[in-house]
Amino acid sequence: MSLTGDSAVESAGDNQGVVVESAGAESTPSGESAGAGESDGAVEDVAGSAVAAPAPSEPPAVSPKRDEIRTVEAPGDEAVKEPSLEDLKAAAELRFQENVKSQSQAGIDWKSVHSCVRWDKPTNEVATIITSPAHANCVDEKNGNYPLHIAAQNGHINLVKWLVQNGADINAQNGTGTTALHMR
Fold first, then answer.
1. Nearest to 13 by CA among 39, 40, 54, 47
2. Which parts of the chain have pLDDT scores under 50?
3. CA-based end-to-end distance of the chain
4. Residues 45 and 103 in one domain
5. Coil, strand, or helix at residue 133?
């Protein structure tokens, strides 16, 4: 055992490299403490050999705030930045604006699509209005709801299934960032 500052390092046997904390007392070559009544912080096992004292517990890691960018490192990869809450909101807003623009350019009347879903029209009637995935994903320009949000919110299970089968995006978020899976 050799001393380094306030700790000793085991250098023989199975305990090679184990640090044994001490409370300021020096150890003699025979392993006995050099000060009367002083403890070196080491624990002895049944055979009288010095064993490393338990390491003091470290304070829990503080998690970053929800809107801070965190860096995540994967083995063998470079660090990847996790987006902040503001970044996610900005991306959702951009997708919303793109959807509004594309449905306007395609001549999709979102109000008639949303109306037939809201009033739970039979699927054969809905199929005459919602004729493409673009129709199934048209967005309300005021609140950002998609037909799937409306069907889910109103409990129209048959329309929810039909919309998903006809191209509705189950991960689409409305103006508050809510998906249809969150609606009740």
1. 47
2. 1-39, 60, 63-67
3. 67
4. no
5. helix
96 and 7 belong to one structural domain? no
Range of the domain at 110: 83-182
Identify whether 155 is part of a domain. Answer: yes
- pLDDT on residue 41: 52
Alpha-helical runs (H) found in 130-182: 133-136, 147-153, 157-165
**Residue 65 counted as domain residue:** no
Residues 35 and 100 in one domain: no
Q: Are 43 and 51 in contact (CB under 8 A)?
A: yes
Provide the pLDDT for residue 22: 43
Q: Are strands 7-9 and 2-4 parallel, antiparallel or unpaired?
A: antiparallel
Model-level pTM? 0.52
What are the residues whose beta carbons fall under 8 Å from the beta carbon of 160, sequence distance 6 or more?
A: 148, 151, 152, 180
Q: Are 117 and 126 in contact (CB under 8 A)?
A: yes
Distances (CA, A) of 30 to 2, 48, 49, 79, 120: 11, 12, 11, 50, 88
DSSP 74-90: -TTS--EEPPPHHHHHH
